Amino acid sequence: MGDPTTRTHDATDAQLIAQWQRGDQRAAAALVERHAQPLARFAASLGEREQVDELVQDTFVRAFQSIDSFRSDSSLRTWLFTICKRLLLDRRRSERRRRDGVELEDRHAVVGYDALDALVAEETARRVQEAVDRLTPLQREVFTLRVTEGTPYSEIAKLVDSTEGACRVHYHNAMRIIKEYLSDD
Amino acid sequence: MTECMNETLRDRLPDLAHGLLSAGEASAVRAHVAECASCAGELALLETTRLVLNANAPRIDATAIAQAVLASRPALRVERGGAAPSRQGPSVWRSRQLFAAAASLLIVASLAVPFLGSGEEAEVRSDSTLAIPNDSPSGPAARTGLAVSEGLSDLSADDLSTLLDEMDAVEANIAAEPSTVRTPTVDTPEGT
Question: What is the C-alpha separation between A94 and A90, in angstroms, rounded?
Fold first, then answer.
């Protein structure tokens, strides 16, 4: 039979979804725990630092509500990223309406990244983060997905509504910019 | 430093860093990295950047989020058959269920005609719809609290859906306790 915890841990996303649809809430919890932190990283790559846990929670609520619309032509994580991005855009639209003057998302540069907190002390780490922050939003999104998640270009292209070729170009441009910034020490 | 011209291998560096390559592919990429200073530097930068971005990402409590997600949506129950509740209108499958439910109720109601005990007889129309008096104390529709006025054909989709849920509940009870179910002996009225 095996330890149920081990089964959940080793199960694929598709298996966990099927288990949850049969009523196994542990499968739902396993899906959340598997994808929550990557979602948080993705949100950060889009420049979001505030109420990230709420954004991640809302993403999963939406995902579980519309699990029927999930098609296996993309990975579950990519699908979750897509939901997260839509929610983030909705949040920013709402904030924009309230504040009346914030730039549209496509031109929304990463602002507000303060100096590293005590957890990251290395000078190299600081410089790397600065370099990533200098990227355009699209470059940063593509680069971060490729570097932190190993997301294939085919999936990235769906997320950013572009082509694989264009995503490759964005990635390599981002890498070049980061290298140039770090070599300017 | 001149960038490596082998774009195919450069593209595989993130895959190598994430362990996404097969053994053969990983071996080939590592062999190239061992001979290419540009790719070796890029691989090191990739790994450092990954560590930095992961370290700087907002920290969230995934367990707490999981609990909150499951607790906040009690309606995230799963219907029999594995489909989650949909916010949209009835699916084709659902429509067929409703139709089948209506047909089943018609049969059940027609069989129950002799057992309506209020003293008022139900009228079975020639078009097979069953007219049950509003104050009928028995019958499946009365059990659910629905006001059946003219006939089953007048039930709304919502009413039929409710009846369907009732039928599901009955079916579940039958599945759970088959020994307690008595099959009634009914004389089928002629012509129905």
Answer: 6
Q: Whole-angstrom Cα distance, residue A21 to residue A75?
A: 18
Cα-Cα-Cα-Cα torsion A181, B2, B8, B11, nearest 10 degrees, comes to -10
Q: Is B69 exposed, middle or buried (0-12, 13-18, 19+ CB in 10 A)?
A: buried
Distance from CA of A114 to the nearest CA of B (A): 11
Count of beta carbons in the 10 Å neighbourhood of residue B27: 11
Cβ pair B4, B39 in contact under 8 A: yes
Return the residue in A42, A53, A81 with the most chain B beta carbons within 10 A, the one to mutate for interface testing: A53
How far off is chain A from B74, nearest CA to CA, in Å?
11
pTM of the shown model = 0.59
Q: Tell if the CB–CB gap between B53 and A45 is shorter than 8 Å.
A: yes
Say which of A65, A144, A176 has its CB closest to residue B76: A65
Q: Is the predicted ipTM greater than 0.85, yes or no? A: no
Angle at which helices A52-65 and B62-72 cross, to 10°: 50
Closest CA to B85 of A176, A64, A45, A141: A64
Whether B109 and B140 have beta carbons less than 8 Å apart is answered as yes
Backbone φ, ψ for residue A110 (5° rounding)? -75, 115
Distance CA A31, CA A23 (A): 14
The answer to whether B57 and A41 are in contact (CB under 8 A) is yes
Question: Best mutation site among A128, A143, A154, A182 for testing chain B: the one with the most B CBs within 10 Å?
Answer: A128
Give the HSE-up count for residue B154: Cα atoms under 13 Å, Cβ half-sphere.
11
Are the C-beta atoms of A53 and A61 separated by less than 8 Å? no
pLDDT tens over chain A, length 185 residues: 444 544 677 889 999 999 988 888 899 999 999 999 999 999 999 888 888 999 999 999 999 988 888 877 788 999 999 999 999 988 888 877 776 554 444 333 333 334 444 444 568 888 899 999 999 999 999 999 999 999 999 999 999 999 999 999 999 999 999 999 988 75
CB A105, CB A92: distance < 8 Å: yes
